[in-house]
Amino acid sequence: MNSPSKAPTTHDEYIAAWPEAVQALLQAMRKTIHEAAPSATEDIRYAIPTFRLNNQNLVHFAAFKNHIGFYPAPQGLEAFKERLSAYKGSKGAVQFPLNKPLPLDLVADIVKYRVEEVSRKKP
Fold first, then answer.
1. What is the residue range of 96's domain?
2. Which residue in 40, 48, 32 sits closest to 116, CA to CA?
3. pLDDT of residue 123
4. How far is it, in rounded angstroms, from Cα 103 to Cα 96?
5. For residue 122, what pLDDT is reported?
6. Is residue 105 part of a domain?
7. Which terminus of the chain has a smaller tally of CB atoms within 10 A, N or C?
């Protein structure tokens, strides 16, 4: 699988750099995040797709050789620790394997949690 050869400037550019099967997963993540956070805007931060709300990073996602990485900040993962227990992860990230269905309901719940969290903070 390929990663983008030049730094993308839009979500579309980032997604287009991946094989079709991975593009479908990335588009599903993108759509789910949009639906859970309709006021969030798309951006590229750290060379990966990012959603921002109130001038703050809400969540990021990215494709890798064997997984889709999802980055909802450590608080977003801690609040859903039990539901995320089946997945590899770290303090600020979780890995969704490419060979299994994406847990889009879980992604939506985490994004909604992050929206509440970011909305409480003033930029």
1. 11-120
2. 40
3. 55
4. 8
5. 61
6. yes
7. C
